[in-house]
Amino acid sequence: MYWILFVMGAMAAAVIALLVGGLATPRAYTVTRTAMLRATSEQIGRALRSIIVDNPQLELRDTEPEARRADMVSARLTARLIADDQSDAGEWTWTLAPEGDATRVTLTERGDIANPIARFVRAHVSGYHRAIERQLQELEAQVPSMTGPSALPRVS
Description:
Order of helices and strands: HEHEEEEHHH
Radius of gyration: 20 Å
CATH superfamily: START domain
Helix content: 40-55%
């Protein structure tokens, strides 16, 4: 009989610890990762648009050319992250900057997690960076001719 109370007490203590840890973790966060790909910003932009359209959790917001010169085009794509309950869960911004025969792709996630338990798990267990690293890997896989052995090293 006492072991049941002990197990229930331990479970309650774990939930309280998660709640307190989540309340001590900031709601808003920003994470940025960068990769260099041997491709034009136009090629990468087309691949990004198809990734955004195919992902039900992303909604394309806008496309903003930042600078235009004869030899360079930089672009920014922004997508809204949609949570399961259709609330706005944050924003992803891809910035494409040509550098020679390659393009620097920077993905920035800005989010806000209201639930303190989910906030603690995301910040301290699964990590904020995993989702955007998966997106960069998906981008690299989307256009294999861009990323094969000629891919440049990843920069964080």
